[in-house]
Structures
1.
Amino acid sequence: MKPAHLLLVLVVMAVWGGNFVVIKLAVGELPPMLFMTVRYVATVILLAPFMARETSRLPGLFALSVTLGFLHFALAFTGLVAIDASVAAVLQQTQVPFAALLAAALLGERVGWWRTAFMGVAFVGVIVLAGEPRTASQPRFVAMAIAGSLMWAIASLQAKRLGPIDPFAINGWIAAFAAPQMLAASLVFESGPPRPSPAPARGRGSP
């Protein structure tokens, strides 16, 4: 690998990692699913010129919008409300062993004992991370983050079955299909961003 290629890999990793910090800040201001709705609308506006390139596989893209566009992001971002961004970034990596196991079970792909062993290590690491006191105090949100990773793994198999497709078109169509799903879920389940409790009023004689 050339140094320039290694630098590009590091840049992509840094951007992906920083993504969780930005999301953590965003879900502190807007409910997670409402935030994703706004994000999807912006995505459609930006990628609309590319969406005309792909109109023959819309049923498959709609199915992908349910698992990846709606379920994955709704679960992952809601989980991020209560857990640290660093923890969420690690929990998202469970998508890799989930995808490998699903590919072996559904597509007949061979995993091998070496990969199986390392996947076991990965899951043990997640269990240890989830047992950390501050994380363990939010089991529901940890479960949401992991469930979001499982949805991502399922979406990876769906994308594989779609075959080669323009990346700008696929992101545009997923955003277009997922935006109303996310907005409907936000209207049903979200009442607004968490707000700090107001400080108690002090009397004239209070110190």
Note: Residues 193-207 have pLDDT under 50 and may be disordered.
2.
Amino acid sequence: MSKTKKLTEKIVHLAILVSIGVIFSLIDKYISALIFPSIPGARIGFANIIILIGILNYDFKDCLILALLKSLISGLLFSGLTTFIIGGTATMISFFAMYFLKKIAHETITNVGISCIGGLLHTITQLFVIMLIYNMGADVFVYGAYLLAISLVSSILIGVLSIKINIIYKKIYNNDNNKTKDFE
């Protein structure tokens, strides 16, 4: 296969993942509002499945583009500027941590573990950004305890789903971009 064809194929795969991530973000917004009506900001995090699939199958630059585009498109389409800043910052911090963990500890940590670390950092980052934007005290972390509990449960779900969906993804796209051993 020519270099151009491989590059085009990778761009198409990443575009599809970004699109699915945006769709998952929209679905997540509505399902989370139904499940957690009295807990503003609580989300299941379905779009993180796509970020985990990217981390399992692509290099850092491609994963970064995937996370940035998913965050940018979802944030600007489905939320206001402040929510975009809060969620986008949290997404990027959790992405860097998950990617770093995958690289240094891929033999000892599972997708579920990476998902849980990502969810934890996402929630904590959101709380810090909220404190900064709204000039709130550490009281926001009392509310954060509820979000962290939800994050733990949903991160386990997202980790398990990412394992299953990654198997399907690899079968569909016959993906040979994975340069490291899969850990499941």
Note: The mean pLDDT is 89.
3.
Amino acid sequence: MNRKAKESRRDFLKDVAVLSAAAAVVGAGLPGRAAETAPDLVVASGDDPKAMVKKVVAELGGMKRFVSRGDVVVVKPNIGWEKSPEWAANTHPDVVVALIEMALDAGAKEVKVFDRSVRPAPKCYAGSGIEEAAKKAGARVLHVTDLAVADLAVPKGRHLKKSSVYKDAIECDCFINVPVAKHHVRSRLTLCMKNHMGITADDRGGVWHPQLDQVLADFASAFAPKLNVLDAYRIVVDKGPNTGSLDFVKLTKKCIAGVNQASVDAYATVKLFDLPLEQVRHIALARELGVGEVDLAKLQIRDVTA
């Protein structure tokens, strides 16, 4: 090899090295790289609901993993009941606020908050504290009576073949599912998958409740949030979802987050409520439909303190 050829080869190798190093630096900040190193679930313990939310999302790779600049984001809490946070009937307002703030900081164009309340929505939105807190944080708070609906096909559904869903939930760029962990008289527990009942305009009494566990699994097979954040600062351990006694409300000071709804629900069932998965039938049915991994031994779980 002559001198000129050797110099050319040396310059080429230098260029390759520089470009490789630059690619590594840039790649480290990309959502894909964050996803590669993030655990399946993050479980935070702490005294501040807002701090716990920010911690679990950071450990999952940060909100920019889920929200891009210009995105329309839906933050979907449980706002089913006219009760203040100490009752744990609704998602804690501080949990909702933390997600709104992070989404806006990540560059979201708009953040929408809504739920199909069980009781009259104006009273539930106000009584839960979520409406005022969400508006102050910069979100647009909507009532489902003002929303258009569209059909969502459920190809894997065994009972539910399609669902009428509020269009904002399925047309947004990022849907963040934010339930509160509670006992439920029909489905044993209400967690991530059960929270989807707040985005459907279906006749819940006629279509969902008769085969509730199967329908919850069916719907989850067709609808996957980008992020699930389970509020477990306080949980309802019996007579839920709207208990009449604070004796059934337990202060647990936890927050669980993950990309897969079934995995979050499985963790909460076993670790928060000390129940075998078989006793929460819709989780087992969701596993059969391929919604997600529910064997905790197969999940990478990170415990943190906030």
Note: Residues 3-28 form the longest helix (26 residues).
